[in-house]
Design goal:
The protein is mostly helical. The chain is 69% helix and 3% strand. The protein has 16 helices and four strands. The chain has helices at 8-14, 25-33, 48-60, 63-78, 82-85, 93-110, 112-132, 141-154, 165-180, 186-216, 222-249, 253-269, 289-292, 294-307, 323-330, 339-378; strands at 283-284, 287-288, 311-313, 320-322. The strands form two sheets. Strands 1-2 form a two-stranded parallel ribbon. A hairpin with a 6-residue loop joins β3 (311-313) and β4 (320-322). The longest helix is centred in the last third of the chain and has 40 residues, at 339-378. 29% of the residues are buried. The chain crosses the membrane at residues 115-137, 149-169, 189-213, 225-247, 253-276, 340-361. Belongs to the ABC transporter superfamily. ABCG family. Eye pigment precursor importer (TC 3.A.1.204) subfamily. Its main location: membrane. Keywords: Membrane, Transmembrane, Transmembrane helix, Transport. It is found in: Membrane.
Length: 379
């Protein structure tokens, strides 16, 4: 039956299957034509197959069926070849990105666990760092304290982006469903997530950064603080994208968190703090992990930003030593380029990670059906 809703009851009643009082018509229609129900229904003792055949023949000879055929013929005759010349109804890349940015931004705003909880924890950590390293000064004891404080900021503060992994998983699931329906492309998803998350990551880097920076008493220059906040921001952007990559490869919540923490743990271990760069084993740790770790560039950039232009005692009561000598001899920082190059490398890695995220999603879409087919044929 395909016709007006109000005429459905009349159609079934005219063929000997009226809908009983106080019964849902839709349920009655399904019971009448469905062989899975008990035989004791409105069709009496007739076989369900005969009931369906009888209703089908009755419908084909009805006026409703003739009206439907005339309407179809009229539509087809309006414009021949319409489907071949039809314009692609898919929205443009800009429209897709704009809609996704708005939706993702609202979702991030409403989901407390996405950024707001992290912001609260970051503020608490900012006060904690500020009070533990409060007013360092420029004595001999402030040297190691500065190094430790900058290490904590550049590594353990950014690793907390793992807390947003459950939200990444849910967002990626929604993307997969809508991607299968052809609503938008991979590029729109990657770009929109980067744009919508940027304001929140700015808050996460700026507010705790102001608190920690002012309480610790680092260099009181606008340029130094700006660089400090930018390093935090770039590091959080990069870790955010890293966790998105993990979410596409390892969609399991627990395994994804463990994988993300493990990757960052390897990067932190080889960043040049726990073991100085020249002391790292050449195989694997110095080449390539040390140079691939963004923590290396964040840490060295923060070192240059803070120690350049300062003087520290070489030992208690001893002569004062320029900060550049400490950077070169004590911390083994690469001095052949400025701190802004370190920052530029981190932002460049952010772009590379986004491109990598795009590529992995595209590859996964092609590889997963092949893997499923192989597994199906094997079983």
């Amino acid at each position: 039956y395909f016709g007006p809703t109000f005429a459905a009851n009349q159609f079934f009643a005219a063929n000997g299957f009226p809908c009983p009082d106080q019964q849902n018509p839709a349920d009655h229609f399904l019971i009448t034509i469905n062989a899975d129900f008990d035989e004791d229904h409105a069709s009496g003792h007739l076989a369900v197959e005969k009931v369906v055949d009888g209703l089908s023949e009755s419908y084909k000879s009805s006026e409703i069926y003739m009206d439907v055929k005339r309407e179809i013929a009229a539509i087809c005759g309006q414009e021949k070849g319409l489907t071949g010349k039809a314009r692609n109804p898919k929205a443009s890349f800009i429209t897709q990105s704009r809609v996704l940015v708005r939706r993702s931004f609202i979702n991030m705003y409403r989901d407390v666990g996405y950024y707001w909880l992290r912001l609260g924890i970051y503020i608490a950590l900012g006060f904690s760092v500020g009070t533990v390293f409060y007013d360092l000064g420029y004595g001999f004891g402030s040297l190691n304290a500065r190094i430790s404080m900058l290490m904590y900021i550049s590594t353990f503060l950014t690793i907390m982006a793992i807390g947003g992994f459950p939200s990444f998983i849910e967002e990626y699931k929604v993307f997969q469903w809508e991607r299968l329906n052809g609503h938008y492309g991979v590029g729109s998803f990657v770009v929109s997530h980067a744009i919508s998350s940027t304001p929140y990551l700015l808050l996460l880097s700026f507010i705790p950064g102001v608190i920690a920076y002012s309480l610790v008493g680092l260099q009181r220059e606008y340029e130094q603080f700006t660089y400090f906040a930018l390093v935090l921001f770039a590091s959080m952007l990069l870790v955010e994208c890293l966790m998105m990559i993990v979410a596409t490869i390892v969609p399991n919540l627990l395994m994804g968190i463990i994988t993300g923490a493990g990757i960052q743990g390897l990067m932190i271990l080889s960043a040049g703090f726990f073991r100085l760069p020249n002391d790292l084993p050449q195989v694997l740790w110095r080449y390539p992990i040390y140079h691939l770790s963004f923590h290396k560039y964040a840490l060295q950039g923060l070192y240059k930003n803070e120690f350049h232009g300062l003087m520290f005692p070489e030992y208690v009561g001893g002569p004062r030593v320029h900060g550049d000598k400490i950077l070169k001899d004590l911390l083994q920082v690469e001095m052949g380029y400025s701190k802004w190059v370190d920052l530029g490398i981190i932002f460049g890695m952010v772009v590379v990670y986004r491109v990598l995220l795009f590529s992995i999603i595209k590859i996964t879409e092609k590889v997963k059906p092949i893997i499923r087919a192989i597994m199906f044929s094997a079983t």
